[in-house]
Amino acid sequence: MAERLDAKREKQFDIAAKVAAATGGLYLDPEILFKRASDDDLKQYTPEMLAYAAVHSAGELARWNGKVPRVSIEPIANVEPGGVAVSVLSVTDHNMPFLYESVMGEVTSSYRDLHMAVHPILVTEEGKAPELYSAERRGAPANRVSHIQIHLAPLTTLQSAELTKRVKSVLEQVRLTVTDWRPMLTKLDAVIAELSAYSAGYNRADRDEALAFLRWLRDENFTFLGMREYIYSGRGLHAKVERDEGAGLGILSDPDVRVLRAGKDAVTTTPEILAFLDGEDFLIVTKANVKSVVHRRSYMDYVGVKRFDDMGNVTGELRIVGLFTSTAYTSAADEIPLLRSKIERVKAHFGFDPMSHSGRMLANTLEYYPRDDLFQIDTTLLATFAEQINDLADRPRVRVLPRIDHFDRFVSVIVYVPREEYDSIVREKIGTYLKTVYDGRVSAYYPAFPEGGVARVHFIIGRSGGETPRIPQAKLEETIRGITARWDDRFQALAGHKAPAIGVSNAFQDSFTPEETVSDLANILACAGGEPIRIEFYYREEEPDPVLSLKIFHAGGQLALSRRVPLLENLGFNVVSEQTFDIEVPAAEGVTTLVVLHDMEIEARNGGTIDLERHGAALEEAFVSAFDETIDNDSFNRLILSAGLSARETNVLRAYARYLRQAGIAYSQDYIAATLDKYPAIAAAMFRLFHDAFDTKLAEKSRPKTLEDLHAMIETALAEVPSLDDDRILRRYVNSIDATLRTNYFQRNPDGSPKAMLAIKLDPMLVDGLPEPRPFREIFVYGVEVEGVHLRFGRVARGGLRWSDRAEDYRTEVLGLVKAQQVKNAVIVPVGAKGGFYPKKLPVGGNRDEIFNAGRDAYKTYIRTLLSITDNISGFDIVPPPDTVRLDGDDPYFVVAADKGTATFSDTANALAQEAGFWLDDAFASGGSAGYDHKKMGITARGAWETVKRHFREMDIDIQTMPFTVAGVGDMSGDVFGNGMLLSPKIRLVAAFDHRDIFIDPDPDMDKTLAERQRLFNLARSSWQDFDKTILSKGAMIISRASKSVTLTPEAASAIGIDKTVATPFEIMTAILRSPVDLLWFGGIGTYVKSLAESDAAVGDRANDPIRIAAEEVRAKVIGEGANLGVTQRGRIAYCLNGGRCNSDAIDNSAGVNTSDVEVNIKIALAAAMHDGRLTRAKRDQLLPSMTEEVAALVLRNNYLQSLAISLTERKGTANGLELARFMTVLESAKQLNRKVETLPDDVAFSERYAAGKPLTRPEIGVLLSYAKIVLFDALVASQLPDDPYFAATLAEYFPAKMQKSHAADIAGHRLKREIVATVLANEAINRGGPAFAVSMMDATAASASDVVRASIVARDGFDLARLWTETDALDGRISGQMQNRIYEETGHVFTLLTRLLLKTGTLKGDTSEIVSRVQVALKKLKPIFASQMPPEIAARKAEYQEAGVPEKLAEEIAGLLSLALVPEIMQIADRTGEPLARAAESYFAVSQTFRVGRLLVAGSRIVTSDHYENLALARSIDQIASSRRDIVIAALADYGKEKLPVQAWHAEDRVRINRIAEELSGLSDSGDLNLARMTVAAGLLTDLARDMVRKD
């Protein structure tokens, strides 16, 4: 085999030689260069590469000058072993000892990746090619050249320069060592001679032993590297050692080379050297602080020899450094001088028989004692150690023998451990412990395995400064016993006998000490006991640099990476690596429980160091909280590290971010989180702003200053934020916190733990960027289970709570709904409110019941959280929530209702209110088991039906007696659709659809289908598929929406007006919406009609995008919106402008909310009786249903009147444009109306529409009607009017008659009595006067809103208008709808006129009841007089009414209604003059006839004005005319009261002038073209006349 290899090498060398020769240049024979190269190295090289290397060597030899070493590092072209270029170190010098190993030592100290290393020694002679040195070819020493070539991995230029410098330094030290070798021996001989001549006295034996040791060194047992002499002078504190002026030898010839250190500094001497020189020893043998770079890389041995003068005085030291040769380690210790004397003294100390067991054991111990340490240790310590080592023979155990170097440079520690407990890991752990405890480093270690049951490791622990710690041997041994003990035994010993014997793998034991595991035992047992997870952040201290790690203990099995990693990443960590370990914990009956430990190495995302002392607990809390899903797992958790916040504190900032997203901020949650993480100091300050604003422990006196300082600090920081987006986000945060009014953050559960859910109550008016309309108050609820909002438009507000499925914009959904709710609530006491909650933990893939139950649980949490920051009432006291700072004052009214998804939750809500002890008890949520069942009452459908009947009534169709066709959305199991389709026996339901099926009945049998619909409605659950198909008409179909396509019967296609017979379900449903029916009835969920100008996206109902049609396509005559948002508001307007008739959903289906409010107020009224024990809950629960129909009647009356009010406003067409425009302007100026939000035209669009003859539509009028009531309600509540005793009856009549008497006191003491009265009065005034009534009256009279309403009630009650309205109501279906509305209009006009006159004439002074009584008395007296004065046209009007079917008496009253307007003026005249009403009336009529005032006023009322100011001017002129008439009458009665005919007497007195004025007025009124200017002139003429009469008086 060897021959084949040699042949292969020779062939390689031959080829290389040929290649080298072919280059034409010099080259060193490849065989000479590489003959002794390693086969492994040569395998990497091709012959060509060897050739180029040989050429390079020849060049290096040629460039060497033969004097100083040549060192170069450079690449050789085409020499690329393994395809990698190399840097070639070439060294050329005279051959000398130690050269190659010294150079290799220097190279390998930095670079281990060597490809080739060769060192031929060449013999060079002039004119001859170099030859390889050998025994046969020695050559003269001067001709021997050492050539070294080392191939290294590529080096940089800097690396090459550095290595070149170091190699040259090594070569210089080799040269010095070799050159001075003989002078060093000569110097040693001189010292030996000097010491021999010293008269040692009693120390002669020690001297002789020292001499023997020096001669032993000289006899090739020591490699001498350097010598230097030092001079010793002085004594005690003045002693010093200085370098002799003579040159040193070898490496110590350089005066800067020192082999001793004090700490980190090289020194000439140390206290220990001075002690040696002052002591009795002749020699000192130890280790130098410096490693040798000559021969071998190890710490040099140091021999110090005392020098004496002729008198025997110590004069200095010869310092020798070098390396013991191998013989010093292989020779018997008792043969080596100095060692043998130590050994003899130790043996003598023990006195054992050399042939005995103990003697032989001691000899063996000393012989195999670490040789370097044997040279250095003193005899006493050696004896002690030897004795302890001998003790190990019979009983192997841990033994630690420390020896501190004389110079505090290192500690020698000999460690014995039982052999079965020793391995490399144990050795590393012991070394780590020793370097730590001695504050040093492991400079070297020497393992050995002597005979017996122990292993030995000799550690050298190097130190760099300070006094070496003195560690008791017992402590060292105790610690190392812990390191070497069997893992299981050590664990059990530490954990105690009660601890379970856990089962872990060898890998676990290698990774974790028993001590560490004992500290983790609580976590392990907790998981074994049922806790899902425990964690601990820690640093692995055993690594060179502490490594941040995380232990995750998980019960039952491994925790998926997909769960763990996101949790850590969102805390700001990157996962570097991980190990997983199974831990088996014994349980009962031999069963084991598995706990899995994931040990993860992590690093901070920003590369920083984590202070676990500061952040550890917070990080652990956040991790577990996110894992347990008590906080969200997202990037906000990074604030725990960056901003120093806790998980709960971070959750506050997360909640505000979520609110801002719901409020429409454009930035994503992640972007917001990143922004806060970018500015952690600002984030922390913003939380502090929140905290200090609501911390109940902060003194109120100091709070303003604290918050002011925080604002200033934040503002300063914000000024340094460079990004506009970041600045905007941070400022929106600050703004939202400033807009916060209260929070439950500081509240605690009964067990002291904080609330899991966060509630924040805000003032939306203060929140920047909120979309309109802005609620009065808003509560944002946030937690991992559910989040949501509750929007209220007033302190007393009410609305449903919706289960939303719109995670990203549920607030937008709720805001859209609350706009309709606000309008709808105009008829009830509370203003609009709406809530929406989004359950975040619905079971994925859960069945219907599971999802329902999870949603209900979320609803409960949502309700509890809302209640947590709501004030309560106890007796007459407001009780604030505990631990809550309130910035908004008392706010106890909080009522909820059902909505989408929560229809069955009323009892749940009431139970929660009762659980919380909330004052409303089961009035908190209406419609529960102890309330009015809306579906059973059919109240929502019945209310909408009232408005539908009005639409048809005004077309002279009575849908209760005349057949009509219907198409709709819904099915008979639904409340609104089902009840609605049972409300008339004349319904011909042609088509309908719900989310499951499509129903088409082209020619329905009204009686049979009504009965069948009733049957379906009565079923617990039903669908159109349950309809009895045998009673359907020809061509009828019931189609599943799951069908892909359907072939329609001709009859079905014709019925819905579709022009195809094969269609998809979507196409069929679209056709149904377009079908030519009388009524399109919406009773199901969804928005199906929009305007052409709207996109489907804007509608916000994606599920119905394929079905939805434009309003312009609807062919139904009437739309009834029993359900919410069946049509968009723009769609309704477009439909009406296209000739259709509809209101809005808020008008149509307000009966449901109205019923709920009545129920709540009934319960509030009865609560006092229940509290006092006068009424049991059981009795109350019997009383409530007994009043059901009366409650329904009260509610339906509002539907009747509201739709009537809209019709009467609509009837005016363009005539009321100015007053409606003025009304909108006033509300807009007061920020009480936003036209854009409510889809109302701006001024320009309004003017254009009215100019084009397109006045406001019913849906638009409905909005104005509701806003008029809302604004008026607010004004009335703010006034004293609701407290007027006159309205006690108004309060009582709000409630069913059945409880008015028995609970009169409870009603009178109702907590919301003022609001109830204000609601009723506002509704009455606006329903009868129209949307602009109050504003117009206030403009015309400068009266307050409360005065206007008071006057309107006096007008109603004093003139018996309520009776007229009731009698007109009774004409439903008996006369034409338009005629009926004309009568309403006439009555309404007089109502308005009377209100104005009552305000103008000052009639309202005094008690309301007395005023009403006075008016009634006056009216009774004046009626006969009026009858005698009626003009002929009144009789004509009466006849017209009678002909239309109006009863005679009513026709007569309506025809003469305008006469009522005379009463206030006549009353004023009578009051001012003291004349009887009859005489005042007689004079009044005389003046009117003289100046034809009546005709003038009628003509003036017909003048059309173009703007608000012209309207004001006209009103002023009319008022002046009326006022002047009164003044003239009063003056005439005053001046001529004694006359029988006072007016005529006055006339006779100034006939010419009066006749002239009368003629002028007559001319103006009879001109036929009376305008504003003429009216102004007329007013001026009469006013001047009246003033003249007053002056005359």
TrEMBL record:
Gene Ontology molecular functions: glutamate dehydrogenase (NAD+) activity; L-aspartate:2-oxoglutarate aminotransferase activity
Entry superkingdom: Bacteria
NAD-glutamate dehydrogenase N-terminal ACT1 domain residues: 33-158
InterPro entries: Aminoacid_DH-like_N_sf, GDH_C, NAD(P)-bd_dom_sf, NAD-GDH_cat, NAD_Glu_DH_ACT2, NAD_Glu_DH_ACT3, NAD_Glu_DH_bac, NAD_Glu_DH_HM1
Residues covered by the NAD-glutamate dehydrogenase ACT3 domain: 533-613
NAD-specific glutamate dehydrogenase C-terminal domain residues: 1253-1582
NAD-glutamate dehydrogenase ACT2 domain residues: 399-488
Alphabetical list of SUPFAM superfamilies matching this protein: Aminoacid dehydrogenase-like, N-terminal domain, NAD(P)-binding Rossmann-fold domains
Protein name as catalogued: NAD-glutamate dehydrogenase
Organism per entry: Rhizobium setariae
